[in-house]
Structure formats: C-alpha cells, structure tokens
Amino acid sequence: MSLTNSNRMAADNNVENKFTKTALVVDDNLSNRVIMGAYLEQMGYSLIEAANGQEAVDIFSECIKKPDVILMDVQMPVMDGYQATQRIKQLTSDEYIPIIFVTGLSDKFTLQSCIENGGDDYISKPVNSEIFKSKILAHQRIHELQSKVAHMYSEMLANQNLAKGIYEKMLQVNNQRFDGVHKVFTPSDVFSGDMMLTAYTPSRDIIIALVDFTGHGMSAAIGALPVSMLFRQYCAQGLHIRDIIQKLNKALYTLLPTEMFMAAQFIRIHHQLGSALVYNFAMPEIFIITDKTNNVRQRLASKGMALGIMKTCDPKEAEYEVKLALNDRILLFTDGITEFESTQGEEFCEDKLVDIIESNKEGNHSDAIYQKLTESNLVEKQHDDISLLEIKCSAGLLPGWGTEVLLGRTSEEEFTNNIDNIDNAETIFKLDFTLYGEQLVLLDPVPLLSTLLRSYEPVKPHKQALFAIIQDLFHHALNHSLADKVKINLSDIKKDTNLDCLHGEFIRFNLKILKVNDKKQFHITACDSGSGFDASTLQSVIENKYDVPELYQGLSRTITVCQKIKFEEKGTKVTAIYEWGQVL
Predict the structure, then answer these.
(1) Which of 397, 432, 459 is the last residue of a domain?
(2) Cα 153 from Cα 163, distance rounded (Å)
(3) Is the pLDDT of residue 174 over 70?
(4) In 3D, which of 246, 175, 240, 239 has the Cα closest to residue 451?
(5) Which end of the chain is more exposed for a tag (fewer CB within 10 A), N or C?
(6) Which backbone phi and psi does 398 adopt, to 5 degrees?
C-alpha cells in the first residue's frame, strides 16, 4: 500500500491544512498519480494515493472522513478499477462520492463498462488539464448540492416526525379505548390516509369508524383532522349515526378537492351488545364472526359510494341491521389488505381472508391475517396503508358509567331523607318540551338537551347518565304506552313512510334540577298520549330489585343509575329521579 505520511494524516483527518477537500487517486502508474495530484492540489484538494483497486478499497473503508472525489484507473494489478468501484459504491450508502474513471482505453465497450460498474464519469488519457479541472468542478457542484439536499432532507424528516407525533395525538387523544377492540395498523408512509375513530353516544352506544382517504401519505392524511373533530362533536351531541354520516359527507364535499374522497365503514353497537347498525361506503367487506365456531356468518359488502363525492348521501341505502351474540367479532379492514400482492402476484381477496379466519384456532383474527401478510416468502413491498380493526362484543367493550358518576352518587338512606325534604327544595333549572306527531320519529330529544345542558357545569360529569335516562324514557313510551297507536316499524322509516298514525300523539318531558340540602336531584318526567300498559309488574321489579324482564330491558340503564322510578296514570306517565352530591 502506497501511503505517504501526509496521505495518512489526510486520510485520518488528524491535521488541519490549506486543503478543504480530499481526493483519492487510484493508479498503478506513479507519474499519472503525480500529474493528477498536481492538478487537484491547485484546486484545493489534499491527496490520498493508492496503487491498485484493493488498496483503494482498504483506504476508503478506513477513512473517517471519506474523500470528496475518486479518480480511478481501469487496468491495475491485484484488483482492477471495475471491481474496486463496485466495492466502494457498496460502502458509500446514500452519500454522493463521484468516481471518475481515468483511462487510456477509448473503445465504446470500455466506456460503457465504466458506467455500468458504478462510475459517474470518465476522462481519457493523456489527461487534458482543462477538461480534467472542468469535470472535477462539475462533480464538486453536484457533491455540494447533494450535501445540501441531504441536510434539508434530514431536517424535513425531523419536522415530519414532529408533525406526525402531533397529528397522531390529535387524532387519537379523544378516542375511547376499549378492551374489546384490537387494531393492526401499518402505514406505507410517514403519514397515513387510514384512520380509526371511536366514541360513545350520550346513550352509551358505541360508534366506531374505519376510514380510508384517497391515496396515502400527507395528501391522504390532510382530511383526517377535520373529520375526526366533526365526528366526535356529532357523537357528543347524540346525533343518530345516519345524521353523522350525512353531515360528514357534506363537510367532505365542501372541503376536499374533486379528486379526493373518503371510503368508510361505520358501526353503531347498541349498549346491550345485542345489535348493531353497520354502514359500508366503498370499502372491502365487513365480516361478522361467530365466536365459538370462527364461522364468518355474514359478509357485508359496500352498498354506498365513497363520501365527499356527491353533495348529499342517504346512509339508509348502505345500512345493515345486524344481530349480535356475546363475544361475536366484527372485522373491518381497508383495501391495503385486499390489494396486497405476494411475490407471486397473488392478491389477498376476501375469500382468502375467510379461510385464514376459519382456520385460526386461537388469538385475534386480525393478527393471524397480518402474520400471513408478513411471512418472508410472501411479502415483496407494501404499496398502501394496511389497517385491520377487530371488535369483540364483550363486556369490556362498553364499560360502566365512569368514576365521576359513581363517586357523586348518594346512599339510599340519604336519598330517602332528601325526598322527605323535597318541599323545601330549591329549583335551579326547569325545562318543559313536547314532541308532536311525526316529530316523535323524526326528531331525537337527546341532541336538543345536549345543546341546552352542555354549558351547565354541575351536570357535565353526569351528562352521560342523564341523556341515557331521557332516551330510555322516550323509547319506552314509543314501544309500550304508544305501541297500539304507532302502527309502523320505527327502525324502517323512509322519506315516503306514511306517518298519519302519529297525528295527535305526543310525548311531553318535564325536566327539573333541584337543590336538596347539599345534594342535587334531576327529576325527569315523561307523559304521553298513549293507552298505557300494565306497569305494576315493572314497578314491583324496580322496588324489589329483581332482574329486569326481557320485555323491559330498554329501561335497564335507567333502573341501574336512578334512585327512584315511579309509573302513574296507567303507565302513560313515568318519573325518574337521579341524585348526586359534590363531585370529587
């Protein structure tokens, strides 16, 4: 190895001199190295010399500061220039270090081989000083530009990662977390166009959405933030899932450019876990899986176009009503799964996913599917975001009323004493409203009350319970006291449904918040125009704390959280009283 002391010092970067750049000159002919070295020193380069390709590779691998340019001869002993260039290029990673072949061979085959083996340019021997210096300067500019781009790219990645952290936190911070939900999420870029959203409604039903914006990366993620904020706002207001979808579609139609849209799957699971409303807009099938047998008993295909394309949409057209049993599973996934290609060009269609699920004997089905996707002999490259969402309809999916409600509740003895003193109570809030005729089925009272009560601070920790009571009493009146007069299926009302049977019917609510001693009581009275029903059995169940009969399961939440429920006037009037103390 031919290295002078100055070369060694330059290679090890241990001394400071007038040179700001370094060149590695590789040639078995000393005179050639001297000539090129003189030109390079005039241009401000320090020199490292090697007499053959093997020396060049060894020097390059040992250098702490890599050379800025390499001049490479072709024909040399031990290792020729082609082999040396290939080895050095393998060591440079993404850094641009130009290798310029300097050769006396001028045939087309030689020049082609220089480029094919990793060379960036070539100079013919004998070396012309002007051409030599011009080519060095040209590659020096490219090298400097590449360094600037690399620095800018590094800063961009740092900023992207910072933005990604904030972005994901904004999307997920208000998501409800459930023991019964398992997700697999693998973005194909820093930002993802796939998004999962979860929220409780005021009535404690759960709404889950899996959405997929057009494309992937930053452009696909741009619509995620407004959608997530609007979704949670609408859920908190207690809007019906159909109204939420319609409002999201309208917002997307207004906000997104014409080439963008949002495919989506929405699920609203009833708080008793016995049923769900499912909507599929331009997404792969949704699987309903029987727990004990792993049988995919329902495959719910898309029935609606993606949101944001048309100004209006009718969610009812994309709706499925699904009956659920305890521990049933619902599997949602984006087209990043079904369009995934193996190295053999095989796509993971829905039928293949069904086979994986039905052969999976333990663990989550989403994990089993992802394991198949990521097996080393199948995976080539991920082209799209991959998202799987598995929902298990178990008790962990819908937790209780929350510590704020439980901590604020009063004992039965305290409540009895407060009821005795109700004549001395101070009324601090009162509201009466009535729904007439077709309003009974076209309007939901919970969003109205949510708007009225949201600014009243004492109610906030208990609003979930209060809204659930109102909704329970409302639906109880429709399904029992008014049942003989409402001759339509309330769950299947369309724009052209004849609502004449509701003419003259009403449900009237009286809401009061009373201050009794140091406690507060929420009195909710619902009266209706129906024929009533035999409430004696239900009253006995409540007073004796028996199990609630299946016929009246719709009142189970109200019975759980209220201290007193009283039926009057043949069941056409019911009053529920909910009391709380100072919230801890």
Answers:
(1) 397
(2) 15
(3) no
(4) 239
(5) C
(6) -120, 95
Q: Which of 364, 361, 363, 360 is nearest to 391 (CA)?
A: 364
Among 76, 130, 55, 133, residue whose Cα is nearest residue 100: 133
* CA dist., res. 290 & res. 382, Å (int): 31
Indicate the pTM of the whole model: 0.59
Query: Tokens 């109204």 correspond to what residue?
Result: 243
Query: pLDDT digit string (tens) for 99-129?
Result: 999 988 777 888 888 888 989 998 988 889 9
Structure confidence by residue, pLDDT tens digits, 182-225: 888 777 666 677 888 888 876 678 899 998 888 666 666 777 88
Distance of alpha carbon 204 from alpha carbon 202, whole angstroms: 5
Same domain, 423 and 336: no
In the predicted model, is pLDDT for residue 414 greater than 90? no
Going by C-alpha positions, the residue among 41, 40, 59, 39 that lies closest to residue 49 is 59
Buried b (16+ CB within 10 A) or exposed e, 84-104: bbebbeeeeeeebbbbbbbbe
Compute CA distances 389 → 182, 196, 278, whole Å. Answer: 6, 8, 14
Classify residue 166: in a domain, yes or no.
Answer: no
- The pLDDT of residue 308: 92
In angstroms, the CA 330 to CA 286 distance is 7
Whether 553 has a pLDDT exceeding 60, the answer reads yes
314 vs 219, higher pLDDT? 314
Which tokens go with 32?
């050639």
Q: How buried is 335 (Cβ within 10 angstroms: 0-12 exposed, 13-18 middle, 19+ buried)?
A: middle
| Residues linked to residue 514 through DSSP beta bridges, in sequence order | 427, 521
Tell whether 469 and 571 lie within a shared domain: yes
CB atoms within 10 A of CB 13: 13
CATH number at residue 553: 3.30.565.10
Domain count, the chain: 3
